[in-house]
Specification:
CATH topology: Rossmann fold
Number of domains: 1
CATH class: Alpha Beta
Largest sheet: 7 strands, mixed
Number of helices: 7
Strand content: 15-25%
CATH architecture: 3-Layer(aba) Sandwich
Number of strands: 7
Distance between the termini: 46 Å
Length: about 230
């Protein structure tokens, strides 16, 4: 589901260290707020990496699951989080998440969509595994911010080279607030909201999967229940 020409697995460990936390810490704060406002218990993190963020999320009855294309990340997550992690699955198909329809109350994907040359099928999968009235939470770099491209081509590329990889072609899908909003709406999501955080470097999108009443809904209810529903 993610197309990358580089291996930057080691970069996961830097998320919560300075200066990278200036970018990533506000994302975790926004996710924590979204988890808190979601009434259901089942949360999925798509493209999770080792899910270092888990320790900063609500410790209640919620069931956190993750999936990723990299088995190394899943192994680290299992060892790190133990029984607090409800499940960890490998994504083996570029067009299919390894879950049944309508499995989760909240589906999050942080810093993933920018890696996908064409995110339309991926977004359809996000919607498919989200329950009706469930929530979707997506973050991505804000390429509507004028200086982001310059920072990536200079300072961030220098750091990447030092770490043994390159950022060239790392983000084929460069999103703006408007393009992200349109993509989520075209995927069938409603109540779409896009805002910026982390010095405007990051876009945060939240949305809802609409509850759809089937066309034959009236035929499925006994007459007395139908009368009560209409009242």
């Amino acid at each position: 589901m993610m197309h990358e020409s580089v291996d930057y697995f080691s970069n996961h460990a830097l998320k919560l260290k300075f200066p990278w936390k200036l970018y990533h810490a506000p994302i975790i704060d926004a996710l924590r707020m979204e988890v808190a406002r979601t009434p259901g218990l089942d949360v999925l993190n798509v493209g999770s990496g080792p899910f270092f963020e888990l320790d900063r999320l609500p410790r209640d009855a919620r069931r956190y699951s993750i999936c990723d294309i990299d088995e190394r990340a899943l192994d680290v997550a299992r060892a790190l989080h133990g029984p607090r992690l409800h499940g960890a699955r490998l994504v083996t198909s570029p067009d299919r998440l390894p879950y049944d329809d309508r499995s989760f109350d909240l589906v999050a994907a942080m810093e993933v969509i920018e890696h996908l040359p064409d995110a339309r099928q991926w977004l359809r999968e996000i919607v498919r595994v989200t329950r009706p009235n469930g929530r979707v939470f997506i973050t991505t770099p804000n390429y509507g911010f004028s200086t982001l491209g310059v920072i990536e081509r200079t300072a961030l590329e220098a750091v990447a080279r030092f770490q043994g990889f390159t950022r060239k072609d790392l983000h084929p899908n460069k999103m703006t607030a408007r393009s992200l909003e349109v993509a989520l709406e075209e995927a069938g999501l409603t109540d779409v909201s896009v805002r910026t955080i982390a010095f405007d470097w990051v876009l945060v999108a939240t949305a809802q999967r609409a509850f759809q009443v089937p066309d034959d809904f009236n035929d499925l209810l006994p007459n007395d229940e139908l009368d009560a529903w209409e009242r």
